[in-house]
Amino acid sequence: MTTLRIPCTLMRGGTSRGLVFRREHLPARRAEWDAIFLAALGSPDPRQLDGVGAGDSHTSKVAIVNPCPDDGEADMEFLFGEVAITEARVDYAANSGNIIAALGLYAVDQGWVEPVEPETRVRVRSLNNGKIVELLVPVADGRAAEDGDFTIDGVPGPGPRIEMVFPNPEGTTTGKLLPTGQPITRLDVPGIGELEVSLVDSGNPIVCVKGEDFDLTAETMPNHLNAEWNTRAKIQAMRSAASVAMGLVEHPGEAWEYSPMIPYPVLLFPPSSYSRFNHDGPPLEPDEMDICARVISLDMAHKAINVTVTVALTSAAMIPGTLAHRLSGGRAVEVSGGGEFRIGHPSGVVRARGRYGEGTDAEGAPRIASVGLGRTARRIMDGEVLIQPHKLRWLKQLMGR
Length: 401
What we know:
Layout: E1 4-13, E2 16-22, H1 33-41, E3 61-67, E4 76-83, E5 90-91, H2 97-110, E6 119-126, E7 132-140, E8 143-144, E9 162-167, E10 185-189, E11 193-202, E12 204-210, H3 222-226, H4 229-245, H5 255-258, E13 264-269, E14 291-297, E15 300-301, H6 307-317, H7 323-327, H8 331-334, E16 341-345, E17 348-360, E18 366-375, E19 377-387, H9 389-398
Parallel strand pairs: 2-3, 4-6, 12-13, 14-16
Antiparallel strand pairs: 1-2, 1-19, 3-4, 4-5, 6-7, 7-8, 7-9, 9-18, 10-11, 11-12, 13-14, 14-15, 16-17, 17-18
């Protein structure tokens, strides 16, 4: 067996980074992929020393892409994989909106869409859930623009603004915006008792809970929360109970095996004052946001907020009776016809726009026509990842293959 040399592209999309692989460059047998992705990122290892990961859920991602030249709905399709950091596994249950932002640039530069100045529309179908995301990619001189002045909190420096729209984002995994049919669900969580949560599936499934229920405040930064093992264990117990309530698994003990990502726990706070994560500037103030959120990803506190969680939380805030609606004072309902819904996260504020659809669903919840927001992205490196035989043998042994 010889060393595999697989072409790929390292890209940043929003506050995430990952490797983009063409489907045609991977082995025909899908069973071979996981070991390749684990070796490329350097898992399992908390440092990911032997790969291009960085020991963080933000930077341990892969996208497998393919053009759709004869498809009337999408220009490209992709399969997203979240590469576990300390386990020999790849999770395909979730989706990554940040990585989708990068794929817009990729499609334009690969010639998968005809470049139109000043913006080119790229339609991306996720094979994880079948949903389509629409992107408006700035274009100059026949290529994706390489200069711009748009900034997003959590990413150093400016770039061209990529507009993202998630049409009809509800029911990505469970088929329902409110999987239990109610804006509030009471979970009986072992070791905690009864918790009041909002279970929402839009963009990705999330379980919203008040941060104070875990004795946390908005001032709690990711590194401090990650050091609280007992608190993290309680959050995971809640996530497991939510997985059952959402119909993802039959028993709480199956939740981690099903997916270590979804449903994402989202700890909610009212608008608050706090210092940004790893930032020496002035603290954020309550009047800069409509709600404050802390997201748990792969059992660790996210340093910003996922795009798909932004979509889900914006959708949740548009539904009367949910925790997000209560804590934001109904602000998302007010801006649904225009304006922005502002979500405070550890690295700053993300601004989203939500729009209602017509009518209501079977449970009486409003339909969400779309959620949109702006991102930046960058093509960092093109080349080949080298996968040596000894690495593949070791990983396959760990995976029991």
